[in-house]
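Weekly modeling sync, notes
Attendees: S.R. (lead), two postdocs, one rotation student

Agenda item 3: backlog of single-chain predictions. S.R. asked that every request posted to the team notebook include the full sequence so nobody has to chase files. The rotation student volunteered to paste the first one in as an example of the format we agreed on. Action items at the bottom.

Example entry:
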Amino acid sequence: MVAEQFNIAKDELLLSLADGNDLEFNAAEYIIAWESLEKAPSDNLLKSLKNTAETIIIAKKEVDEKTTSEITEVGQTEGPGLLLAHHHTHGEPTNHVWKNQLAGADGIKESHAVWPRYDPSPSRPYKAHNFPFHHATHPLLKMDAETGNAAYVENLRSHIFGGHAKEETKMEQEFQRHLQKKKSPLVEGHNGKKILGSLKTNKSNHAHQIDLYHRDYQRWSKLNTERKDNYISEGRSAEEAENRLKVDHFNQRAKQWQSDSYVTDENGDKHAVGLGQEGYHLGLEWLNPEERTAVMRHISEKGVDAHDTIKLPNGEHIPSARLTWNNLMRRTPEMNWAVREAGHNGPRSHLRQESNKEDYPQEENRFNQSAIGEAAHTYDIGGKPISHYIAEAIHNRHGIEDGIGNQFNILPRLNLHKSSPKESYSLHDLHLGTNKHYKKKKIDDPKNARMPMEDVLFLAGYDPKTRKPLLNHPIYGEMDGPIIPLHELEEMESHAKENGNLDEKAKDVRNDLAFLQSPHGPHPDEEKPKHWQLGKGGNHTVGPAKFWSKPFAQYGGAGMTLATYNEIIHSVAHNEDELTEEEKIEQAYKNIASKEPVDVMSGAKPSKTTFQQKTKDTSFPSNSSMFELNNEGILHPNDMNTALGMHFGPEKSRQIGEFGDAIEGEKARQKFTYFNDAQLMQNHFSPVNHTSRRGDKHNWTLHKSTYNPDLQYTLRHMSADEKSKLKSVPHNDSSLVHHPLKSSLPESTYGAHSSDTPILNKARSQHWRKTMLGHTNDPYKPQKPSVQSLTDLVSGNVPVSYGVDHEDYMDFMGWGSKNINFKNVKNYITSKESAKNMRILTAIAKQGGNNSPTRIHKVIDNLEEDNDDPIYADVKNHLETSGSTLNEGDLDEFKNWLNGFEFELRKKKGEAAKAKNQEKRTSIEPTADTVFNTSTIDSALKFGGMLPAMEKETQLSERLNQITEQMQYAESPEEIEAMRQELYEGEAELNKIQNRSTEAVIGKKSSWWNEKPKITDKIAKSSRKAVLEAAGKLLPMVMEHDPNHFDLNDPEKFMANHQRLMHDAERWISNSDNDAHGINASVYRIQDEMKQVKPKQSGFHRDVMSHILDNGFELNGNMSPDEVLEGMGLEGKTSEQKSRLRDHVQQLIDESNAREVPLNVSTVGQLLTSDKFKNLMLHRTHADEEFADDYNEHGLHGAVDNAQSRYANWKAHPIHGVAGNAARQFDSKEFGGNMQNNGLDFYSANDNDVHNRKNAGKGNKKPKTRQTKNHLDSIVSLDVDRVNEDNLTPKTEIVRRVGVDTEPVPIGGVNPSSHGIMLTHTGADVVHSSAVPVKSSFGFEFDAQGQPTVGTFTEPQLYHPTWQGALEELHGTQETKQLLESMPPHPNPTPPFMDYDKENFEIAGENNPTALNLSEMSEYITSLLNPDVLLTKSEDAEWVPPVRPMHRIFDLSDLEHLRGFSGSWVVSKWYDGKRVIIVQNDNEVTTYDENGRKVGLKKAFKESLAELNDNNFVIDGIVGKEDLNIIDIINYDDTNVAEMLMHERMKVLRGQFDSHENVIIPGPHDTKMTDDEGLEEAVKILQEEHSIVLLRDNKSTYMKGERRHPKWLLLRKSRDFNFIVLDRRGKGPFTYQLGAGPIIDGEALGNRAVTYKNQFYMDVGTAHNQQRTFKVGDIIRATVTGVTKKQRKNRNVYNVQVREIESEGEGEGAASAESLDLMTKSFAPILIPHDLEYNDGVLQVILKGVDTVSYQVSRIEDNWYLHNPSAALGDLTKSNYSLTLAESLHPYWHSVAPLILEGHLVKSSVMDEEEIPTREQQEDESAGILEEKDNNRLLKPSTKKALEVISRALDQLAKEKLTWTGPKGLGIDMATPIESPSGPTRLTEESNLPDYDGKKRPDEEERDVNSGDKAKKTITHIEMKTDEDESIVLDDEDGTPTLSV
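Predicted structure, as returned to the notebook:
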């Protein structure tokens, strides 16, 4: 009753959502009904409906609280509040392997001529042929072996010459009449929107495709009259000549359709001649190229929805409906092929016709109540409405006179559609009924009445169910007859339905629409429209779509999602590259109309006229004929062409209402508007969400594929009870029936999660084929069996396509229960402390020798930290031997942890109860004082049982993480491959450890899972056997055609031809009826059997009886003891033991003789290991992993022997209790009656002491072992004759079962009357296999009768691998051996989905099991709604060092020099200011600088931070003058989010924080998420306001603890300045000395001033490697990457870092010193990690992960010169990026270089032992930002004394030539010298040029760079600069160091 009320409440709410009435009331009713259920529904629709109901109630409550709120009803607008409470995304981004590599038309004039094309980069593992729409794979593009034409050409030939065009015309005409007669919305439209359209228009006579054919043929024949004359002159009749001409016409068109050429019209425009996907599906084949262009232009610019015809260039019109009808008939089969999985043919079911009456509990009342209610008050009979006559009868019955206020102007609503009439109705009852039209709203206007037809009938005097007159009426009493004649009421009802809305008509409309979609109609025995025709044999019906489905039906599908298919077909569209000019088209019309007939296809080229062209746009098209991109880049039906697109697009979520803006001046008023729209038209006709139960669309057969349609039709008409009696796997299981579009939530086809059942099933199916059929194998090394056995799979002997091993694969396939592993329980093990406490618990358990929670609880209560306590000492010793410790205070922490564990357990249980709506039925509530108990210990022990695995997991996981990290930096494919192999092996070991360790908790897996795989296995084997048989019938035809087709001297050709033979044999079976080939196969079907059925029995001993009867060994009195022992598997180790065993079984032999009947026997051990009797409790032994492994491998006896030697406390091992308990189950004293009743006897081995326990001695392990073995070898016997007859007497019954029949039946043909096979050779999933295109030398084609013909037109094609048995059977064993031995190595045996991209090393399917079926994003989309799902518990909020970018680029093109990026980006503004880490703990905010020092913030910042969030957090920000900008988050709510990916962290930031005052959270204003395509635009937008932009890889973590991030980089573009050329060196490329100025008083700058033409210029830097030639004195334009400023003699001097000289300077002179000064702060250098090395006269600037730049070094007198820079990689790639980057860093390394060159600074990797500081010391004393992993770091100068020490140390180093162990990367991430020490350390010439070309001058003597004869000068001055731009200056005068800032 509760369930029934719930269903009623559900239907009422759906109805309210449809019509907008009683929303709040029905929402509340639904929630109450939900809460009343014992178990919460799991159905997604019902759960979503509950969310919707709650949304409505909340919205209503908020409205009610605003006393002056207004509620209105309007049409749909944008806003929140969706019908099913889903995120309104209009679909979600696809994520398939061809994404961003699809190519389409170049323009409108080509859009009809192209097919989808995949154009991958060379690095991609998916090549051009690994694409389902490739011409070698797509069913329409495959080459016909007879003609060499594409398959679509031959299909069009058959359409014309096979009579199908004429049949189609007749069917369309009948269908058109049917639609017009009923005024169907298909031809009339709905609310101005076209659904299909009418073929009949006043402007066109070309209603049918054959009309267009005749038009084109007549046009062509006028131009070929000579050809006809020639045929007649050859003696042919006029009819023969005409037929010949038609063939010539078709062949010429066929050639043009496949041409890549163009024709030029009289305006000079070129039109593509070919016929492409759009041209074929829209039916444009009989239009010429210019006409096709006109049609495509009309669709693009005007659409088909608002136009009934399309005008052609010659002025003729064609109906736009011709396109929509063609599109539906022709494209639907392609869609079905694209989305169905590879093992199925096309749809082959009898079409199910939908019905409001049958499909809804309320029948028509679901939609008709408003229409019936209005009609009852308005429908006129004799000048008055029906309501008048009924009201008059009520008034007369109750004496109500005219003019009195209680008259019935509105009829009462009695709800008789849901209940039976009452015995009587009072006047009060009837008045109440007038207020029941709406539950919470009175109506005044009768037109708003809502009444079921049952109410009207009853009020008019009829029985509401039977429609018969009531003689004694509950309202009127005795009646002479009804008030209204029945025919009048029924006419009113018909009138109301005709005027109903689309919701009510939708099922009828879809039934009609299916005529153009479904190849097969309703069953011939069903009532149906007459336009459906009988198919061949008369056992099924067909429509016009049958013909167009044939090319696709014979092939297995591509297995993609609908979203992927839509994106692919959309990709052929163009981005318009020419101006839209109506006049241009009109002129073309006039020109063509005025001329004689011209066949444009023949190549006529009229005069050319040039039109203006747009710039070519090569991006993904924004619009196609069917779809358009919205603002989010998501596809949805084109608004001008919904009649084309909505039949293939997704559904769309419908809004229920929204809050509007507050009404001005009145704070309390805020209007909530309900949307009173009915269901969206798009949703009525979308192909998704066909269901057999809930929902609105019940035409689930439309896209369904199945191997046995007859079975499905039979099941469709069986009752639930009849189905339940079938002995089978679920009859709609995905392994048998395939619904590719069955289920998808609104707007979620594009975002179907991988956990959604349809997509998951599709993925499982593909991976089953890859693994069990060997489709991932090297095709040159086929597997031996046709289908791999489950036994081999379980044994790990089959290579798997997903996962790291067979167990991982089986988990994904759903074969067996999901194991508990470390990942499953990580919520409970949140830290190292948790793991340690579990180890303590395990140690306590092991100390006592058993796992009794009660005993352990007592031990814990009494345990004290006392080394003299033996228990404490024992526990401590155990921990130490296992590598752990037990220190002071650990016990207290352990007990606190147990309390916390119990708290978490209660919390989890409470959440689980709440999820099931059972929270009120449980008392589980965690409280602050929760204390652990025995239940806590029991639960913890279950997790603790996995601790041995967990310890190994930790080690393995760390290693796997290391490998994963190293893969990012691998430099070769070989290195990557080796790492991948190590990764897979490690993951397999990790899986093995986890799975084995869980058996102690959940026991071994049961074998229930293998039933479905066994069915699939049988179907596959039977199917492959049938294909092999068909190949055997075709092979003689091949050999007769040419024996050399199978020549072993050409093994590759031999293999290709074998694969083609198997491929075509499968096509033959699919394409042809059985009478063409006569092949039978075992199929999955209903079978009726006469069977002796035993009565159903229950109870342990009855189960044992049944088990022994089926599985026991049968012995009789004639056997010898040894025969019995061998049969039972009993063995003795010694002769004495064998003798005792003989005596043991002799008892049974004697008993068999005495009874004169055989006995069925089994040992207790065999019963234990059968896995049939859980109460024998063998699973208790699984805690001992080795024991479990042993008994699986060696049996129980072997396991007992091995375990005895391992265990010190052997007596406590659970096997003893398990064996004893099992033997006690057969104690005759306790269970004698049950055993006797079931014919059982027990023979204990203890009676004969088979294992000699008595002589085993005492005090050791042997007695226990031998006693246990005696229990195991005890025997249970069964005497069938002594079983109680009432329990065992079989009965003869007809048993109906469903299964794979052993008796083969005829197969062939894709129709509802035939059986089908599983396709294993023709599926389009071959594109995911390791196959490469190979060319066979023959192929088969099959005519309409299925007769095969050999052809030789072939092209390279992909084929699925065969199996060795097929080769041997067709070609012979020896020949197969010779073939396989001679096959060359396969060029690429790795399937593309398992291979990696050679650029980014990403693997298509490595981490996503549904990658094969191309699913869409899931976790990312989920995180948009709930960022909390991404959080993983880790640790408290605390300071961590902020991460800085590793790289700097100057332009986006520089990215090509960096690698390892995913192609997905977060682009942000990089603000000026100080970097800080902000930590909030318990609402206390602390701010730290980059070195972990606390820093102060402005009061305004502090106040804003306090308002950000109440939870603890750690965020990364930049403090500026006005704002504090947050850039990242590291910890949230004591949860580590640093390991989350970049986009996930952004979701947490945006989802949990809002900007407040001057604390700014990342948002669209400063942060963009994009991919490579959108990167340039995103950067451009942000650079409009900010010069520096931060680029972060979207898939990067925060890398907590690191100082530099390899996936982060800064982009700042170079700036242009004018400079004067002061000097030039070299003969090309050149080095230029550049200057700024002129300047005043240049003498004061010393050698930094250079004179030119009597004016001083400041030397500002050098430009290296320049190609262009300039003279000294020229003004040039140079791009610079940074500007720095120093002081010399109180004067500012500037250095610029030059990137490139662009050109001659224009319009102004050289830059002034003032302009450079303005740039020093806003354009300062950007520091990134680098290093310096100096060897043999070469100074190297090492740019980590980028390149190495080398400078030649020369020394002349006291000066060093750097010249001739070169870059290792840059020179190879002809790029200056590396050199530019090194030069931009010049301010950081130029001061350090002199110290290295002079020998003051020597890099050392090793300190003296006593000088090496500890890691902790370095952390405490590190200066600036230091590389975390660098142990050789300079300690920070934290005090003046320390600075003095450093100063003296530097001086001492200089004097004594000692080694200074500096930081790893000099000048990187720490304070670095800006000015070099005193002495000759400037890297300049006489002008002190820092890096100028230093060729020998006439007055200079060159010195040996390495001579070292120059004495080092004392260092008296050093200036250091920190990353925070603070300068610290040290001066040492007379030995007294001083510090200044």
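Discussion: group reviewed the output briefly. The first helix runs from residue 2 to 19.
Action items: rotation student to repeat for the remaining queue; S.R. to check formatting next week.
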